[in-house]
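A reminder from the course coordinator: this example appears on the midterm review sheet, so study it carefully.

Given structure:
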């Protein structure tokens, strides 16, 4: 079985069976997220039909996603669509889709660096990329934004190894390391062109090193930045201020109206508590992340390196070549990020993640005839979903 372009799969979403709908699927943990991985050819080519199938597969809309694969949280309701790439500089194409939990929505308006950690192993498992004898590097084109990454992971004897001694915060136990390196992005690091902007009366730094992020000193919003995610989500006044900032920042960053989008992310900054560079609380976009996304952390780390940004006086950074340890509610994530000072560009970004295959088999989506609410394709899709 081989993939096609992630937006032009030839599959029908009915598998090879003659009974109920069935689709081959691999469930994987990628970093601190969990998602369903599909070959593009196994899903409908039409984006609306694909999204309808994915909603029924994940069990949405339902707060517990009790009738599908989803885990009742945005971090466990994710999808990767993977195919061989026609681009000579990439081995595979990866389209990330966020499936909403309690609304019938699927969006492609952001990347996911955690789910990205499983794309390389999945590509080898499904025969899209041959495995090396000791390790394999997979060149990945991320269709959501056109950006690229290279994932390197162990393949002793030509088979993906998931066991290892690498621990990452937010995941119990250890696993094999997946090193993800991001080449220099094509867009500006500072989308507004400014080191600082005043947005809705609050000084922020808008940065994009793989994920559009708005950096905000926690103290500017009258919180410490050490609150639990639940405490922050329960603060109605804070939620109102964050919404105001996000909508205004979206326009400044060239993202347009972000009312129905999941970007930009908002990250509150506070001084570190556990030997890192900074403490963070990130909103995705309303719920507070229990950790931090890989691409979000890459943008935070780069933003902290920007001279004159809002991170000055909050973060504690070592020499420019050192890794930036970004603290979050359940631990930390280390990012190796290096900037050239003039003109200001990111020279290198790399992170270490882990991934694990949970199952590979056939998933049986809920019947369309018994779905609780007719699925609909929201207006937040980009054309990249159809390419």
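Designed residues:
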């Amino acid at each position: 079985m081989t993939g096609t372009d992630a937006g032009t799969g030839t599959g029908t979403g009915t598998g090879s069976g003659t009974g109920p709908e069935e689709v081959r699927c691999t469930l994987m943990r990628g970093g601190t997220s969990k998602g369903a991985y599909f070959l593009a050819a196994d899903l409908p080519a039409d984006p609306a039909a694909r999204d309808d199938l994915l909603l029924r597969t994940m069990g949405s809309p339902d707060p517990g996603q009790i009738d599908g694969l989803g885990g009742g949280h945005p971090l466990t309701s994710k999808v990767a669509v993977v195919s061989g790439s026609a681009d000579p500089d990439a081995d595979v194409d990866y389209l990330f889709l966020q499936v909403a939990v309690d609304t019938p929505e699927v969006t492609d308006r952001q990347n996911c660096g955690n789910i990205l950690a499983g794309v390389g192993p999945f590509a080898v498992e499904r025969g899209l990329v041959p495995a090396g004898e000791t390790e394999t590097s997979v060149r990945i084109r991320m269709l959501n934004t056109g950006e690229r990454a290279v994932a390197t992971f162990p393949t002793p004897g030509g088979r993906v190894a998931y066991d290892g001694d690498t621990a990452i915060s937010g995941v119990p136990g250890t696993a094999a390391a997946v090193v993800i390196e991001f080449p220099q992005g094509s867009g500006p690091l500072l989308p507004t062109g400014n080191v600082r902007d005043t947005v809705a009366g609050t000084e922020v730094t808008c940065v994009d090193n793989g994920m559009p992020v708005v950096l905000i000193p926690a103290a500017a919003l009258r919180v410490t930045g050490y609150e639990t995610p639940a405490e922050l989500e329960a603060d109605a006044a804070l939620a109102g201020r964050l919404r105001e900032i996000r909508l205004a920042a979206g326009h400044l960053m060239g993202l347009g109206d972000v009312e129905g989008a999941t970007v930009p992310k908002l990250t509150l900054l506070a001084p570190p508590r556990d030997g890192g560079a900074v403490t963070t609380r990130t909103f995705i976009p309303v719920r507070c992340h229990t950790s931090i996304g890989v691409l979000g952390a890459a943008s935070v780390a780069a933003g902290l390196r920007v001279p004159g940004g809002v991170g000055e006086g909050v973060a504690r950074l070592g020499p420019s070549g050192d890794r930036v340890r970004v603290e979050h509610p359940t631990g930390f994530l280390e990012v190796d990020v290096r900037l050239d000072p003039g003109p200001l560009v990111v020279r290198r970004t790399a992170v270490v993640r882990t991934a694990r295959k949970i199952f590979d088999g056939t998933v049986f989506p809920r019947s369309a005839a018994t779905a609780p609410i007719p699925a609909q394709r929201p207006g937040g899709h980009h054309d990249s979903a159809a390419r």
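Confidence is low (pLDDT under 50) at residues 1-10, 14-19, 374-387. The helical segments are 47-58, 113-116, 119-125, 229-233, 236-252, 294-304.
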